[in-house]
Amino acid sequence: MNNSWASRNKIKVALSAAIAFGAVGGAWIPASSTVSAAASYETKITYGVNMRVQASAGSDKIRMLKKGEQVHVVGQANAYWLHVLTPRGESGYISSSSQYSTYSGPSGSTGGTTSPGVSSKRDQVVSIAQSYIGRVSYGYGVRNESRLIFDCSSFTQFVYGQAGVSLKWGTSVQKSQGQAVSRANLQKGDLIFFDTVGSNNGVINHVGIYMGNGQFIHNTPSADGVAIHSLTSGWWKDRYVSSRSVI
User: Which part of the chain is the NlpC/P60 domain (predicted)?
Assistant: First the structure.
């Protein structure tokens, strides 16, 4: 058991809550340090453009990005929209038309002319998840997109949804979506499932997203938000149950 657990009484209360909310991904897990990757804001806005909540002209507007602002392009949502992050921590979508930014595509092609492939979509899922470090709060059995409060499985549902991948809410259903993949063959963007209560007897009650290099990202109550942990060492190594590819 990880030494970071506060007290035996707290453990008992947390474990009871984990069992009660296991169907929607609730589970208590040990705290540990969070790692985040700083984005490089490589793309310049060349003409004022609205940043929207979804990749649609009818979606709510977050704000207008002004000429000269720098953004990081996570990827192309489709042929017409780019998913971008701003230095303020905002995540949204802008038109991929070349008149609005200097983005030229992942291989030097004209921005907005191609849809992202499987590899770039996997990168997109991970980048989206990372963009919510420090912004999301954890709540048992909660899915509140407007306030960015989620449990583990509503967070994965939210992240994959922004990348155009439909997931249902709850570890009980996500554990059967897509195709099974072995631990040895994990790829970036795969879902990974854990048993966090007692000894690992294969009862799934927590889910995260594999990032590559033996790390995964997930929404966790111990950090009250999004954190990155190792899958190859420490507490999580022996809690792994299964994984699925949904991309």
Answer: 119-247
